[in-house]
Specification:
CATH architecture of the largest domain: 3-Layer(aba) Sandwich
Strand order of the largest sheet: 3-2-4-1-5
Helix content: 40-55%
Distance between the termini: 62 Å
Order of helices and strands: EHEHEHEHEHEHEHEEHEHHH
Number of helices: 11
Radius of gyration: 24 Å
CATH superfamily of the largest domain: Tetrapyrrole methylase, N-terminal domain
Number of strands: 10
CATH topology of the largest domain: Cobalt-precorrin-4 Transmethylase, domain 1
Number of domains: 3
Shape: globular
Structural class: alpha/beta
Largest sheet: 5 strands, parallel
Length: 273
């Protein structure tokens, strides 16, 4: 297949956070697939970019396979198509992933012109340990999905990053603060915009902190979680006992686990026997 898809990263709030490389592509490009054509045209107008001879085709979460077929038809003529979401990265909680999968299946080249990231920006502002971190997108509304997500979160040790809309912030924070009362939280509000603010507190203090939080605007929730070492050790102990049952020597297993769990071989040996 001939042609290339180029992902363009737009500012997450402040329109001045636009790289020169992306600005040049917006000026020189001819065909743009985008999340919302009206939003993109308004962005062009803000930066005084003439779009009279450019084409804009919508591609969003509800687009079907016919849009992919149209993408392929246009690509054969234009050879390069740019894709943009309304803000930030086209794949971070935005709709470009199916388009990327389609390009990979068809052997179409993919490139990305990077820019500001809401996830990294929030990590920089949060004041929490940045390594490791795990991004989970928007917290699930469905109770079953929420339960499965919680299982994953509790096993992870590090900083967890979530998106949340203003009308669900109170409900989500009440749930998370009860599940992680001893975790350090940071709420990053309206990152890069005029009313940017960061709230830092412990989970158990959310009820008191809540009265000071202005819930208007977009939020990134971050919190640092230390996994339950007891459960961690329990999982390893159960697995080790399975290894012993296959004739491995208990002392050798204890030595191996001591290197992983940072405990003495003697203490682990006692647990295993």
């Amino acid at each position: 297949m001939v042609g290339k898809l180029v992902l363009l990263n737009l500012p997450i709030g402040n329109p001045e956070d636009l790289t020169l490389r992306v600005f040049r592509a917006l000026n020189e490009g001819r065909c743009f697939f985008c999340e919302d054509t009206r939003t993109l045209k308004a962005f062009f107008s803000h930066h005084k970019i003439d779009f009279a001879n450019k084409s804009f085709i919508s591609y969003h979460d509800h687009s079907d396979d016919r849009r992919l077929e149209l993408f392929n038809e246009i690509l054969q003529k234009e050879h390069i198509i740019y894709y943009l979401s309304d803000a930030g990265s086209p794949i971070i909680s935005d709709p470009a992933y199916p388009l990327i999968q389609y390009c990979l299946e068809k052997g179409i080249e993919i490139d990305s012109y990077s820019g500001i990231s809401s996830v990294i920006n929030a990590l920089e502002l949060a004041g929490l340990p940045p390594h490791p971190f795990s991004f989970y997108g928007f917290f699930p509304r469905d109770a079953t999905k929420r339960g499965k997500t919680m299982e994953k979160l509790k096993k992870f040790q590090g900083t967890i990053v979530l998106f949340e809309s203003p009308h669900r912030l109170e409900e989500t924070m009440k749930f998370l603060s009860q599940e992680f009362p001893d975790s350090e939280f940071s709420l990053v509000k309206e990152a890069s915009k005029k009313f940017q603010n960061v709230y830092r507190f412990l989970g158990k203090d959310w009820e008191t902190m809540q009265t000071t939080v202005d819930g208007r605007g977009e939020f990134v929730i971050l919190f640092y979680h230390k996994s339950d070492e007891g459960e961690y050790n329990k999982d390893f102990t159960e697995q080790a006992n399975k290894v012993i049952q296959t004739k491995a020597k208990t002392k050798e297993v204890a030595k191996l686990l001591s290197m992983i769990l940072n405990e003495t071989p003697q203490d682990i040996y006692k647990k295993l026997i």
